[in-house]
Amino acid sequence: MQDSFNQDNVQVLIDNQPLLNSKVTTNNVLSLGGSVATANTEGSHTIKVIVNDSIVSTETFTQKSDLYIGVKFNRDAKTVSLVYSPNPFTYH
Q1: CA-based end-to-end distance of the chain
Q2: Residues 6+ away with beta carbon under 8 Å from 64
Q3: CB 38 within 8 A of CB 48
Q4: How confident is the model at residue 2 (pLDDT cuts 50, 70, 90)?
Q5: Using an 8 Å Cβ cutoff, are 53 and 76 in contact?
Q6: What is the DSSP letter of 27?
Q7: Does pTM surpass 0.90?
Q8: Strand pairing of 68-74 and 8-14?
Q9: DSSP states of 24-75 as a string?
Q10: Shortest CA distance to 35 belongs to which of 62, 12, 15?
Q11: 73 and 51 in contact (C-beta within 8 Å)?
Q12: In this structure, is the dihedral angle defined by the CA atoms of residues 87, 89, 67 and 46, taken in order, positive or negative?
């Protein structure tokens, strides 16, 4: 969970399996609001992120090896965006 979360209820589902359902607040210094992990399963998957029971983002992605997904929330535009990386995100 990255950027702009402030006591927001966040649900994350991968292939319709719940992975996260909790309140998230982003640390303003680190831009990190928390993380979760799941088994590395190669193939095509669908991720669905729901913020505050009303803002929904659904995307399909292909996983070939370790994959890190950053979830960013734009409070003003009421949108969620996803960032995919083969490497862990670095926080300072």
Answers
A1: 15
A2: 42
A3: no
A4: confident
A5: no
A6: B
A7: no
A8: unpaired
A9: E--BTTTTB----------EEEEEEEEETTTEEEEEEEEESS--EEEEEEET
A10: 12
A11: yes
A12: negative
